[in-house]
Design brief:
251 residues, mainly alpha
Length: 251
Amino acid sequence: MSAYTALARASYKASVRDATTLFFTFAFPLVFLVIFGLIFRNQEVAETGHGYIDFIAPGVLSWGLASAALFGVSFTLMQWRHDDLLRIIRLAPTSVWSVVGSRYAVALAIGVAQSLLFVGVAMLPFLGMRPDSKWPLSLPMMLLAVTTFLALGLIVGSRADTAEAVAAIANCIVVPMAFLSGSFYPLELMPGWLQGISRALPLRYVNDGMAYAFTGFGTMTDYLVACAALIGFAVVFAVVGVRTFRWSRDS
């Protein structure tokens, strides 16, 4: 068994072992979806032909994907370093890319499962989401979302040494970003200066891409800009994450 395969298997077991982690990965976004869906049930957005749920669901899904990728890799790296597993892995020897790559494979699998479950629930009759014919474009956007926030989680997981620190840092990143990027509140209703700030946040571009894929809202140019922006964020975060990666608490 290769180091990559062994690490991927260990990452998978770490991800599914904890019931609390599974709840916040899969169930928590669904709670928000159901709440918003019931509040705006059977209401349509004027002149679009879409219900409110069609616009709400992509934003909540984007937040869910970002949170799962960020928290997942952050907690895993922190725990492995705390238990000195990373020190042992390094002596194997194994490269940092094998560690990150194995976690990336698991994050993608979780992201796919999370998205399928989320969209399946959103399309149930009591919520009534109706995806646009462009919905396949959500797949590359999901890939870019997981990649970007996993790279960001690499930074958080490399610097935080306790579960409390990971939770505090990750929440300080994801929660404000969700509100400022339009996951829970339409950007069009925000002041212009806040809309400007949102353009510096990666979740804004995930929301834009998902909205276009599921509702057709925006243009193909907007979608491509969102893809390019996320690629840029992912590269920057990955470079910083690899440079700041720590194999042990003493390094």
